[in-house]
Amino acid sequence: MSESKQGLAVVIMAAGKGTRLKSKRPKVLHTIGGKPLVAHVIAAAGRVAEPSNIYVVVGHQAELVKAAVAATGVQFVEQTEQLGTGHAIQCARAAIENYDDVLVLSGDVPLLRWQTLDTMLGFHLAQKAAMTVLTAVPPNPFGYGRIVRKGEKSAEIEAIVEQKSLVAGQVKIDEINSGIYAFRVKPLLKHLDQLRAENTQRELYLTDMAAILGAAGERVVGVVAEDAEEVLGANTIREMMELDAKMNMANVTRLMANGVTIFRPETCVIEPGVEVGPDTVIEPFVQLRGKTKIGSDSTIRSYTVIEDCTLGSDVLVRQSCVLTESTIDDGARIGPFAHLRPGSEIGPDAHVGNFVETKKTRLGRGAKANHLTYLGDAEIGERTNIGAGVITCNYDGAKKHLTRIGKDVFVGSDCTLVAPVSIEDGALIGAGSCITKNVPAGSLAFTRPQQVVKPGWADSLKAARKNRAK
Ligand code: UD1
Ligand code: CA
Fold first, then answer.
1. Does ligand 1 come within 6 angstroms of the Cβ of 108?
2. Domain-by-domain residue ranges, the chain?
3. Is 40 an active-site residue?
4. What is the distance between the alpha carbons of residues 292 and 254, in angstroms, rounded to a whole number?
5. Helical H runs in 309-456?
6. Going along 49-188, which residue ranges are E strands?
7. Which one is catalytic: 30, 40, 371, 401?
8. Which ligand is nearest to the CA of 106?
């Protein structure tokens, strides 16, 4: 992390509605790469300034935006009416007036790296500029404000002209305004009220400060971002999905560089906090989310979604499993179609088969629950076998209770284990039993309604029906 700069405030403009999205949710809360747009920007800002010096301008659905990022410790500034980016900074006047410099970021430019901000700030201070604009030369500049330099090679900027205000001759300018700026606070606040809404949008454009400060004899400079992709804005759902794909591909590429095989990587979702060891194979359409960690030599088959889990090495997760907040030890086999809910701990070499659901349940080494089973609030010992269709009845309608099963236990198919209940080591439970009392070690337990057989009864019933139909 770079040193947070003394006397530096950061203002993140995030009050806009995002009209071009045609969504009822505020733009900056739309999620890409597993996080809301504005959270990406706050994360970058947090590398150059303390959260207490970061001010997020909120307006449209302010309460929602605040709630989404409150945990980061940033400050908020209200812009009740969204009269433009210049007005957003006017609203932040009281917040920033005691700082030396202010970095202004847009809440909808999420790929921005903190290193770029650091470089830009260094340039701003070295140039002793009143305003420094981060610019870029993207393949398609359409839609962005354009940079009018004082001369072809000049560091100085004469004006920033919005797309809709471009005049003939300016249309071919390929250098764009990224919407990211550094200002010296004094000259900014001295001239900020000179902004006028004399444009097609009837808004106060922060971009007009370039010409205003220039006319006041202040130095206004531009620094070109090395990578134009980093400063792309997200104004439409389509643009947002393009940025999401870029972020995702960066994560996929990082894992592949680490020796992970990922088939059809464009179909997989890998979030930034995910770590995977070498020689692990990930099939198409897998999602690895949150803080998921996977060891080496494991295989994750298609359509599996894993969130905040820790998996060991040599683990096989077959198709279409949903795993959340769980741990799976080396050599375990999961799925297909298994659902591991929070607090599941699957021991080494244990098996969890198809249509098995677990929650707050520990399976010991080599234990097996292979078919159609619900295990909730349970502890299951080493090598124990849980038959098809077994259910731990953990909930009495008010409270959850524990089921304890020792090691080397055999639970036959279709048993219900009514918690709290304990089955000790080596016990055998007959198929179809409803177990309500503890079972001592080494014993057999079963509950069994009497089977009644009436020879020939079915045949005579059929014959009687046939006669009646005649
Ligand atoms: C802006 C710049 C444009 C630049 C582009 C880069 C202006 C006038 N234009 O255009 O030169 O190329 O960013 O991405 O600044 N916001 C507020 N309050 C408002 C209006 C907007 O907080 O009253 C916030 C928005 O929520 C958004 C950011 O400011 O996060 C930028 O606003 P947006 O409307 O997206 O500006 P652009 O049209 O993209
Ligand atoms: Ca924008």
1. yes
2. 8-231, 266-445
3. no
4. 15
5. none
6. 54-58, 75-78, 101-106, 131-136, 146-149, 157-161, 176-184
7. 371
8. 1
**For residue 300, what are the β-bridge partners?**
282, 317
Kindly give the confidence (pLDDT) of every residue in the chain, 470 residues in length, as a single tens digit, with 9 standing for 90 and above.
445 667 999 999 999 988 888 999 999 999 999 899 999 999 999 999 999 999 999 999 999 999 999 999 999 999 999 999 999 999 999 999 999 999 999 999 999 999 999 999 999 999 999 999 999 999 999 999 999 999 988 999 999 999 999 999 899 999 999 999 999 999 999 999 999 999 999 999 999 999 999 999 999 999 999 999 999 999 999 999 999 999 999 999 999 999 999 999 999 999 999 999 999 999 999 999 999 999 999 999 999 999 999 999 999 999 999 999 999 999 999 999 999 999 999 999 999 999 999 999 999 999 999 999 999 999 999 999 999 999 999 999 999 999 999 999 999 999 999 999 999 999 999 999 999 999 999 999 999 999 999 999 999 999 999 999 88
Distance CA 269, CA 287 (A): 5
The CATH superfamily label for domain 8-231 reads Spore Coat Polysaccharide Biosynthesis Protein SpsA; Chain A (3.90.550.10)
Q: Give whole-number Cα distances, 468 to 90, 314, 460, 463, 464, in Å.
A: 92, 65, 12, 9, 6
The residue whose C-alpha atom lies closest to atom 2 belonging to ligand 1 is: 179
Q: Would you call the peptide bond into 420 cis, given omega within 30 degrees of 0 as the criterion?
A: yes
Structure tokens at 107: 């809440």
In this structure, what token pair is assigned to residue 42? 């706050």
Architecture of domain 266-445: 3 Solenoid (2.160)
Same fold, 8-231 and 266-445: no
Contact indicator for 367, 383 with CB cutoff of 8 Å: yes
List, in sequence order, every residue forming a beta bridge with 288; answer none if it has no partner.
Answer: 270, 306
Q: Which of 30, 85, 198, 202 to mutate to test the pocket of ligand 1 (most atoms within 8 A of CB)?
A: 85
**Residue 164 token pair:** 């809709």
Q: DSSP state, 417?
A: E
Rg of the chain (C-alpha set): 32
Q: Which two tokens stand for residue 210?
A: 């370039």
Task: Read off the pTM.
Answer: 0.87
Closest ligand relative to 17 C-alpha: 1
